[in-house]
Fold each of these.
Amino acid sequence: MGKDGKSKHVAIIERCAISETGLSQLFPAATHFHFHFFKDYATFLSAMVWTPCISLIYSLSGIRTERLTCLRALNHMEKNYPDRQRIVLAGNQMEERLISDFSPTSLHGILSKTMPLELVRQQLWTWLNENQQQDDNVLNLWYYSYDQMLSQTERDIVFCTTQGYSIVDIARYFRRNIKTIRAYKLSLMAKLGVRNDAELLYAADILIHMRKTLNEPDAPQRRITA
């Protein structure tokens, strides 16, 4: 990459101005890359019409609504721009692990922003310069079919988790004993390899909102009403 002397455009989606300032300092000497910062995916798509980017670096936010927007954006990017590089900067190592474990969207790289900045810079630089070989470098992250792994009750719990329902709510709706539902939840968490409710919610968001697993369950077998 860069051997043809042409400039390469790289898009970075980062909502936080402070983080944007930090990221802008990662490649101060890059001569064959032009970095463009965007606050959201829609603005990036509009700019793509005039300035096609060879790579999208999405800085993941810890806010849930923005996280879901990021997941949908990555899914859209894979479907509509499969030849463009997709890199995610996760907020921490937990996010990095969960995305690596559960995201069915192919990524060319994922890093935790808690890594030392020099290591982040070196790895991003390596990925950007390998962009021409991206077909060989895509991370095939989807190793298991969770549709096969999870029972219907466990899938219902996954869906209900994303809707904010508690164990008591789920047990009451499905007319099951709370201890039974709790046992299913523990089994679900063990299968997914998550350790607490925060990680379960994160994993459930990915499984539901990426729309590529669990047979696209729009609702449990019976809809829960508020």
Amino acid sequence: MTTQLDRVTALLRSHPLVDGHNDLPWEARKRASYDWDQLDIAGPTPTHTDLPRLRRGCVGGQFWSVFVPSTLPRDEAVIQTLEQVDAVHAMVARYADQLALAGTADEVEAVFASGRIASLMGAEGGHSIGGSLGVLRVLHRLGVRYLTLTHNDNTPWADSATDEPVHGGLTDFGREVVREMNRIGMLVDLSHVSEETMDDALDTMSAPVIFSHSSARALCSSPRNVPDRVLERLRGNGGVCMAVFAEQFVSQEAWDWRQEAAEAAAREGIPATDLERFVPFSLRYAETHPQPRATLEQVVAHIEHLREVAGVDHVGIGGDYDGVRQLPVGLEDVSCYPRLFAALADRGWSDEDLVKLAGGNVLRVLRDAEAVSRELG
């Protein structure tokens, strides 16, 4: 007897599931200094991501995050971002029988048709360009297809969701960055940015935006999530919000716990935005103050809210695997996507809408950005 899970698995094997955000490259830096012999993703790994589990998860395309900490000095941020890009190129070359670089929507579909996983890149934070449009253009030439305008800290030209506002959104240079991204066909990613930055970017855009890994603020009050008012603007912009699985952006209880941990860390002089110090502190804090767990069902609720407010043409998936320590129960690693889609099918999602969520919407956005780039020349 064919189960719902069997049915959606077959659907995802026929239509590319394109995830918006995976931090395996930074894990490879931390764990193995980018040594793919030491962290061999052909077999089981201690990370959330390896090739066998990507296959079981029916992943057809992946935006690999080339994240570097937003606390780095400008030149060091650029250098480490280039090292991240190089690591992705090396990974794809090593596993060329299963991965292939893709720079356009057509290339994603061609790689998927070849039986491999299309590999794109996204730079997580405007600090990665070091205040240089030339660096922005070079990253695009190297295969980076989106730039998240900020990470946890403000840049000199854009306010972050998790820092004290300085600019009131985007500066004039920030708007210039957005316009240049439109011109070259790079997606503008509004995850991590302040609400004012979201508005300024949407006001400046000639192409659709993405939120590569964010969910609904109406269900979890983290400023990393998107308010309904901005979700409604996606209908006119044509953009996509790619639902994140990170527990503290899914569960209100988990977010409240993080706020309590952040207050405790602040008393010891550790800001929550300093991930290198805050993450170890939060692990110690969890030993005596257990973190509430999020669930697959809560992720389903976020996706359904995104569909209700923004529309089914404006929702996608951005799991944030290997970017967080712990994932919701039922979504523990990259093999779990079919469970999520089966749960949505159980709630009445049509095959057509599941295909849009999986990758159809973000590929449409990528095509739209390519078309705008051609028009702007």
Amino acid sequence: MDTENVRGGLTRNESLLLSSLSEKGKSIFRLRDVCEELRCRYEYAKVLANNLAKKRWIIVLSKGKYLIVPLSAGASPSYTEHEFVIAAHLVSPYYIGYWSALNFHVFTEQTPFTVFVATTKRARNRKVLNINYRFITLKEKKFFGFTPIAIGPFKVNISDPEKTITDALDHPEYCGGMGEVAKCVWNAKEKVSFEKVLTYVEKMGNTTIIKRLGYLVEHLKIDIDARTLTTMRSAIAPGVSMLDPTKPRTGSHMTRWNILVNVPKETLEEWRRIL
């Protein structure tokens, strides 16, 4: 066994702290929790936390936030809390979105290797316990449409089904590309309210989302209420938008939706051939 990975012995106060926090279900804690549990000063709490991190009994999530590695993980810990719970402690405000939320809502079977986190703050992308966390900074007007869900004793914010589809159409590059988004729209067709999606689009102020949705609905032959389809057509703005913003500006122009179809139609239906 690699001796650098073996956890070091605990002092009396270190053991007392970990036991007390674990009994209270605080697998993630802050320095103020250390002060409260040990009735110690902040400076001592920082020293104790740093020592525990060096001994590999806790993992630093961010400045002043730590994750306890439980005894059950053994001497060479590989334990981790659920990645969404960790994400919830890396930035605030936040919600789990994009490809991560598409997978959570079972709109895709693909499990991304990165956790996508929407926030109004500027946060540095980082890796925690071999999991990549990517932060997408949104304007305030786009930061809505999420709900808390329970993961163990924690509550984690995740975009609701309609906002997840809306965000995917807004930024397909954070969702595996337009081919993956097309599959998700198909899988979500009976699980989301397209009227609610349109309400979200209006609030976000980006009619390109409607253009992409309208094109996909027609191309995939998704049965949608005629009134909703009419509302979509009347809401699109002048000017040509690209179906996939990450691809070159080449392809065919679909005047009905004011959109440049710069993705091969085979790509949009590749998932159908796999099913």
